[in-house]
Amino acid sequence: MKLPHDSLTGLIDADALRLRLSDLTRATDGDGSDLAIRSKVLAELKEAKKAGRVLAEKQLNEDGGGFLCAKRLSHLQDELIRVIYDFAVWHVYRITNPSAAERISVVAVGGYGRGTLAPESDVDLLFVLPYKQTPWGEQVVEYILYMLWDLGLKVGHATRNIDECIRLARQDMTIRTAVLESRHIWGDEALFKELDQRFNDEVVAGTSSEFIAAKLEERDERHRRQGTSRYLVEPNIKEGKGGLRDLNTLFWISKYHFQVRRQLDLVKKGVLSRSEYNRFIKTEDFLWAVRCHLHFLAGRPEERLSFDVQREIAIRLGYTQHPGMRDVERFMKHYFLVAKDVGDLTRILCAALESQHVKEARGQGISGLMQRFRLGRPVGMAKPVEGFPGFTVENNRLKSNSDTVFKSDPINLIRVFQIADKYGYHLNPELTKLIRRSLKLVDKKLRNDPLANRLFLSILTSRNNPEKALRKMNEAGVLGRFVPDFGKVVAMMQFNMYHHYTVDEHSIRSIGILSEIERGDSEDDNPLATELINTLKTRKVLYVAMFLHDIAKGRPEDHSIAGAKIARKLCPRFGLNASETDTVAWLIEHHLDMSTIAQSRDLSDRKTITDFAHVVQSMERLKLLLILTVADIRAVGPGVFNGWKGQLLRTLYYECEPHLSGGHTKVSHRQAVEEAKQTLLAKLDHWSDEAKEAYVNRLYKAYWLRIDPQRALAHAEVIRKADESGDKLAFEVTPHSFEGVTEITVLAPDHPRLLSIMAGACFVTGANIVDAQVDTTTDGFALDTIFISRVLPDDADEKRRGQRITDLIGKTLRGEEKLPEDVAKKGSVKARMKAFKVEADVLVNNSWSDEYTVLEITGLDRSGLLFDLTRAIATLNLNIGSAHISTFGERVVDVFYVTDLIGQKIANISRQKIIQERLSAAVDGKLNMSSAASVSR
């Protein structure tokens, strides 16, 4: 990159600094070895370093030049090293008549060798000494290193002669790469030139295949460590896929193989076009700007763009808010587009390498490039693809017969991906390069072409690997141009902790998961979805809805409603009829409903089910929505979907199914209660008739309507043991491996604070509550059940963990131990969550249940929140029937089904307002519990 004429001047005046340091030695006749003099020298150097860095940051904020900032910081470091070197050899270890053995070449290697340096990066140095050495060389090196360390720098260093450098570079690819990027800073330049010449002659010559293979393998391993997607919402800007290290790898390979010293030389070699070179420079400049800002902001070598710094960097870079997108989301979209450009440049370079046959066959794809020749002979011959005269296949990789294959028939820009998917071909790098250069052919005419749309639909609904084909289309830029509405969400990031990927990556992953479910590959984790997907009347609408479900993200309007409108426009273009279009639009509009209801509503409440059934209306839609919901949640990120969420979705499906098939309405509440009682009694054959009759009459109607037979039997045994022992407290811990939860049941004298005590015990022991069910008996006992996230794989270990929680609950209820007075003080908002603002919102709703008032509480998640909420509800004199705890990244949605103390809904508007105010204060951690209790009394 060509820099402005005076871009590096002004950070430090090295000559003036040398004079000041020289003046310090006058009192000692020029001897700078005195410790007092060294301290003063160090102070001068520290001041120069500090002033230079402050100015570099100021200039970065003014001109925004990331690459320029890295060059300035490298120049500053160069000058400091030169000044230290000069002081060492003139004032500390001065020799009047140096011999040939008393020479040193100070060489920058690694990233510093490229002449770029991030604010907090390591300084990598190589001290090159002659073959014959004297103690003088070691003394000077030691002085320089200690001075740099005392300046607060982290210095990577090696001291070697040229023979050692060559020998080690042959043996170690990391050392070879470091020497490849070496740059003379100061000292004896002849030593450096000899090293450079011998390195090219004795190490580089004839070994480019070996080097490229090693660098690509190293890159692949790095991607595996960092995450194989370049669309992770907290990317590593240096080591992640699409980051600076990928650009470095490209240039290492180019420099080694094409023998170039600058990126511009790749244009002269015909590897990059001028526009591609400009893209290389722009991506590098942007990534350097982000990295420099990140280091300045963190004050340490931080490379991960975590949520807590993203918005500050967006502001520093000048991004502003637009309708539907926040400033930070616009910044991160730019970042991911740049990461995508890095991927494009990788493919372009690999195409150039492919054409020169520089690497033996290994693997497939970009990591397995240059496999055309093995041992100097062709691996396979190109064969025509039957029925598609414009294409040939060689070594299972698709190629074009000419550079005009797309210009002569633009439909080939869609057809090429359909062929690759149909036969399982990879795309030759040259073909990918040609696709990128033909994107302007994807115009309105092609978008509306019936054949092009049929081909696209066949890719989207393929029974092979639609995710792979769609990702290829997206990476090549075809997908966003063919479906412009999808192009608007390409690289779009949602600034929250729930979504792990960009919108386009999430959508494509969800198609892959849908295909996986259809193949039966995830039957163990998704049994119902796997069972249902093969009973659908049409699978086409499911795949189209999945592809389009988030297509309206980033718009001012609700994305579900806006997405349904887009679907009504796109589906006819894709060839769907009116009925199919209507189903797709409905699925998109309601694609969040099933997840929301399953996780935050009482599924034993009849009105929850009837209301949901009224929305769904048909069994076919219920099946489609269940499968789509499972795939959508699983595609959010690793670990987001778990057995408990799967169980909730299955429960909602099975509860809703009879409503839509006509069976449920034939059974009255009375019949349902009687049936539940008889089912339990049939399993209690070891009980006396009197005990059976007494037990079923101890529990209210609501209990029998929602309890499943297995849990009813477990509860019966818990209560019986308590009765026999005379203990008023009883506990049961049951791990559930498939659902990924542990069930804790507590029998205790009824008390409005019981659930709060259970929540507090869970907080103290580090357990995470995901659901709760509260029941009472006719003789004044509470039968409360909570479900906590499972932590330990072994059932016995997990049961012991649960028993530690029940022990604490028991001690607290007996008065033997006291829970923390203010949990919020012990567990505040986590550092990563401080970047988010979630306004506390409390909804009081009487229409979601016939018997309860439903409190839906939304806010920023923090430790102890559930404890505070349940304590607040207790002080409001409310009885909790059930609680449903959902966390979506940084946002928590807690739902409580409550009544007043006499079992009635909260109808009074004034009291509803007090509830909203009190619970909002609890969410924010601002509620004074003692005053709240006195007010409620």
From TrEMBL:
The keyword Translocase does not apply. Its cofactor is Mg(2+). SMART domains: HDc. The keyword Nucleotidyltransferase applies. Uridylyltransferase (UTase) activity is inhibited by glutamine, while glutamine activates uridylyl-removing (UR) activity. It catalyses: [protein-PII]-uridylyl-L-tyrosine + H2O = [protein-PII]-L-tyrosine + UMP + H(+); [protein-PII]-L-tyrosine + UTP = [protein-PII]-uridylyl-L-tyrosine + diphosphate. It holds the Pfam family ACT_ACR9_3rd. InterPro entries: ACT-like_dom_sf, ACT_dom, HD/PDEase_dom, HD_domain, NT_sf, PII_UdlTrfase/GS_AdlTrfase, Polymerase_NTP_transf_dom, UTase/UR. It comes from the Bacteria. Residues 1-384 are annotated as: Uridylyltransferase. Transmembrane segments: none annotated. Has four distinct domains: an N-terminal nucleotidyltransferase (NT) domain responsible for UTase activity, a central HD domain that encodes UR activity, and two C-terminal ACT domains that seem to have a role in glutamine sensing. Belongs to the GlnD family. This is Bifunctional uridylyltransferase/uridylyl-removing enzyme.
